[in-house]
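Predicting holo structure, S-adenosylmethionine bound.
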Amino acid sequence: MTSRQCSVVRTGDSTDTLFCREYGQTMHSDSGAYGEAVNMHVLPSGVLDSAAEHLSVLDIGFGLGYNVLALLFESEVRCPEKNIRVVSLERDRGYAPYVRGVSFGDEKDRWHDIIKRAYESGFLREGRFSLDFMFMDARDSVRRLPGGQFDAVFHDPFSPGMNPELWTVDFFRELLPKLKSGARLTTYSSAAQVRAALVAAGFSVARGPSFGRKKEGTIACNGPMTDSINEEYADGAGTAVKATPYRDPGLHCSRDDILSRRLAEMSSRRTTACRQARQE
Ligand SMILES: C[S@@+](CC[C@H](N)C(=O)[O-])C[C@H]1O[C@@H](n2cnc3c(N)ncnc32)[C@H](O)[C@@H]1O
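Done. Tokens:
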């Protein structure tokens, strides 16, 4: 395990995030790292409003563990009787020194200590919580998950342009059957190509909440949603070129390959659109 070249950055709600050189970006919104976890993932997922006694959450891109922390912390306030099981997918243990260094100076530290212990051993059972890690490429781990398990998915890789392998039609197609019917996936991205990929994979998509300077995220559902905007992103819709999704046949393409496949498909969509316009 090699430690990553990162620097700690203080965000708008006084919680810290990491700037990661490999991706040229921070792990969280500069408006608030912890605030983003609560407001872009835990609350809009609706998972803590569920009537079920046992909840299962899939956390894609563990990072510093803020989404898991926000889930545990908010559950203690909102539904302290529920049993919560989390499966976290993370490829890179090089962030370990930074995970160990996470500190808030308040009661969140007690919860993050539980998460740190789980991170070190790969799993933990503690009272009504259980947390299991799968330390490998999420494209491999998602295939190993049993179907129909999850009440919510926190989808939180780096940005689509820098981390395209987790934003492809093929990845979302593999993911969909792992969700229970009606379960939601939350993400900060509102990119047309991400929404189009979710729609092509069979999700319903709707506009998600905004947080800080980010205008809106996306909520996707394994089942119908009353506020669905699927028709805006269906194949052949007005935004077709921008909405050309990332593809990763076989789920083992390199980042560059995924990006260049999309560019080639965009160029062919543009040519078709020009030809059609000339014929009209
Ligand atoms: C933006 S950070 C996640 C922040 C995190 N959710 C939190 O609450 O602190 C993205 C994470 O996704 C992980 N990641 C990127 N590509 C991955 C892949 N193919 N498989 C598994 N994890 C991946 C990165 O290592 C990084 O930890």
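The CA atoms of residues 141 and 161 lie 22 Å apart.
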